[in-house]
Amino acid sequence: MIGKIAGRLDWKGLDTVLIDCRGVGYIVHVNDRTMAALPPVGEACALYTDLLVREDLLQLFGFPTMLDREWHKLLMTVQGVGAKASMAILGALGAEGVARAITLGDARAVQAAPGVGPKLAQRVILELKSKAPSVMAMGARLSGTAETVELIEPAPPVAAAPRKAAKVDEAAARRAAGTADALSALQNLGYGPGDAAQAVATVSGEQPDADTATLIRQALKLLAPR
């Protein structure tokens, strides 16, 4: 199975890219969010991938982090959610948005993805509510982006874009780490994974920049009456 592609970005389409990996070109399907984060054509890039095998077709789907890939695989376990719908949901919400929607039971957020109707959105919420915490708990370890490789003829570096991307990645990693630590702490205190995840997601939605201590403290206030 192909789990990662790293090389030169040769071409961008509407929802696919061509990555040259030492002379071999791979066509990778990506969502709008991933496409927007990719560097210009000619520069080095890397994506984690999931290979879809059908009787008459092989398709590679690309993701900026392992966490996105794990959510993609989990979403496709829902009846009626194929690769196209999963990519649409992740493209609309991102990994953190999917986690928040599922733990809060927010079917309308899932329905915002193109091609996802109310019945399918509700099914995603119902079928993944008990499974989501396990992926959320891995967030800190899986939120890092794929590393690129040095090109034989590297394109001239663009200083501003990598710095901006690095800041975004670092902030996302900190939030994911804080969420994972808060979930672990609450479960160690005896709260169930579902209740803990819902409380943490609620606090994260209200206070996006909250640190781990704040997440735990505010989540405990929500859980205390139970």
UniProtKB/TrEMBL annotation:
InterPro entries: DNA_helicase_Holl-junc_RuvA_I (IPR013849), Hlx-hairpin-Hlx_DNA-bd_motif (IPR003583), NA-bd_OB-fold (IPR012340), RuvA (IPR000085), RuvA_2-like (IPR010994), RuvA_C (IPR011114), RuvA_C_sf (IPR036267). Keywords: Cytoplasm, DNA damage, DNA recombination, DNA repair, DNA-binding. GO terms for biological process: DNA recombination; DNA repair. GO terms for molecular function: ATP binding; four-way junction DNA binding; four-way junction helicase activity. Transmembrane segments: none annotated. It is found in: Cytoplasm. Belongs to the RuvA family. Homotetramer. Forms an RuvA(8)-RuvB(12)-Holliday junction (HJ) complex. HJ DNA is sandwiched between 2 RuvA tetramers; dsDNA enters through RuvA and exits via RuvB. An RuvB hexamer assembles on each DNA strand where it exits the tetramer. Each RuvB hexamer is contacted by two RuvA subunits (via domain III) on 2 adjacent RuvB subunits; this complex drives branch migration. In the full resolvosome a probable DNA-RuvA(4)-RuvB(12)-RuvC(2) complex forms which resolves the HJ. This is Holliday junction branch migration complex subunit RuvA. It comes from Fuscovulum blasticum DSM 2131. The lineage of its organism: Bacteria, Pseudomonadati, Pseudomonadota, Alphaproteobacteria, Rhodobacterales.
